[in-house]
User: Fold AIM24 family protein from Streptomyces mutomycini.
Amino acid sequence: MNQQLAGFAPTPVTARMENHGRAMLKVAMATGQDLYARTGSMVAYEGFIQYEPNPPAVRQIASQWITGEGAPLMKCAGDGLLYLADYGADVVVINLDNDSLSVNGTNLLAFDGHLSWGVERVKGLAKFAGQGLWNVGIQGTGWVAITSRGTPIVVDCGRGEDETYVDPDALVAWSPNLKVKGKRSFKASSLIGRGSGEAYQMAFSGQGIVVVQPSEDSTDRLRVRN
Assistant:
């Protein structure tokens, strides 16, 4: 039996964060290299790792999540290997190099504790969606892990002059330097998304990437309000 299961054994550590399979994140923890992770995402760990749910820094920032789109976070510290997952969702690991990323809170799995982060309003959308859209902005040099309901597509918006349109409920993350605007449309449930009636897409332009998942978030984040 051990021989049959050998292919699923832990692999040697090669980076701070890396995938173990499609739907699991492996984090190499070390003293002084704290981590913020989605509360409840720990599935296993080796070594000595402590967890602090809803630490003061998170409580202060999370108070800005007035739309309920935030992600409950815990602080992880210690030495060992930490394994995280989110109900079988695909895990995408990103190594920021003095860069930034805007992430839908429901798709945020983990990020290095030394990175700068905060809740940010997406400009240019309030008139379409009432209170607008709030995301988690992360910047600096370090590791970030996000989730996707299925294998995502990463669209490079800088390859042409055309705008890239995304259903907001399928949006995972994007480069915050992109220009964003809303576009109204009427869509039938048999063509795009769920439901019927007036809705809209988000239009991205400029230099940067947009990460889109093949399954719409069930929260209906953006809808035109009369």
About this structure: Residues 222-226 have pLDDT under 50 and may be disordered.
